[in-house]
Amino acid sequence: MRPWPKCHKNLAGIAFLLFVACVILAMVRLRPSWNTYQETREERESLENKLKASRWPKDSARLSALLQEYEKKLKKDTGSGVGLIQQTDDVLKKATSLFLPRITGEYGSVADFMQKASQTEYKDQFDRLDNYLLGKQIQLDPTVYGLNESTSEPYKYQMLLKLWTTQAVVDCALQSGLKVVHKRDPNSARISAQIIAMPMRPYVLSVNNEVPYLMEFPVQLEVRGPMPNVSKFIDSLCKNGRFLPMVKMELSVQSPGWGKKPAKPDRDGHIRTHAVTARVVCSSFFMPAGEGRKVEKSSNIPTLPRGA
């Protein structure tokens, strides 16, 4: 067998090098592209299967019509003339408007209030609340209330909001003719008003939100008085610019004949009582500055209305 001519050997070497270069190119450049293609193809097939299993229409025209219908409901409802977005904004404004005039009057804006509220201001406000309640024959006990003049929490504005909410709720009770219940501590013989500033309750739209879009400040209060006065108190919580909705209530009634002869029913067969004790939890609401209210889209797909 004759040996290959030199030119043939050169061509064979070049061809081999080209083959190796193609293999390397495929491994470095083409393989990732192929993997991406495969992943995209699998994702598309999965999406198509989900669409087939869902109740969403496959026709783009019907989807566009549904989109327009939903946007119309969000922006402007044909019935009331106010869309869901506007209704939501109106509810939030009403829920968080109680202390807004005070915040803007003393601090200028919500953002400044959150940043500039200080421990000194809190101490001053606590002393004022304590003296105000003492003037109403209400003895605020820090061990029951949960706050005292030296309490220090990371967010000072939240401490102030707890104090303001307490005074607002107590004022509603007193103006309705109710008395704040006091109880004696068996260990220290100290008489304490049954008022508790409960922990702040945050509301978030997504687990990824670090700052809540809404904060609730509940206060528990135990009051006593006639049932009509209790009803008046409950009614006054959301009147005259106030929004302190009651989120919990426990009623207890002492028998009119307790310790005496049993009370007799009236003509209707009812035993009437004049003393009702109500343990209520009322809340104020606060909306932080705009940076903390980022709304993220939910990954849950809503169910379509029937016939879509």
What does this structure look like?
This protein is of the alpha+beta class. The protein has a domain at 93-255 and 274-292: Alpha-Beta Plaits (2-Layer Sandwich), CATH 3.30.70.60. The chain has nine helices and eight strands. The protein has helices spanning 6-53, 60-75, 84-95, 100-107, 110-116, 119-135, 142-145, 156-175, 227-236, and strands at residues 179-180, 182-184, 191-193, 195-197, 201-203, 214-225, 246-253, 276-286. Strands 1, 4, 5, 6, 7 and 8 form a six-stranded antiparallel β-sheet that branches. The chain is elongated. The protein starts with 5 loop residues before the first helix and ends in a 22-residue tail after the last strand. Residues 291-308 have low confidence and may be disordered.
Strand content: 5-15%
Q: Which series of helices and strands comes N to C?
A: HHHHHHHHEEEEEEHEE
- Any idea what the CATH superfamily of the domain at 93-255 and 274-292 is called? Ribosomal protein S6/Translation elongation factor EF1B
User: So, CATH architecture of the domain at 93-255 and 274-292?
Assistant: 2-Layer Sandwich
Q: Detail the poorly predicted runs.
A: 291-308
- The CATH topology of the domain at 93-255 and 274-292 comes to Alpha-Beta Plaits
Number of helices: 9
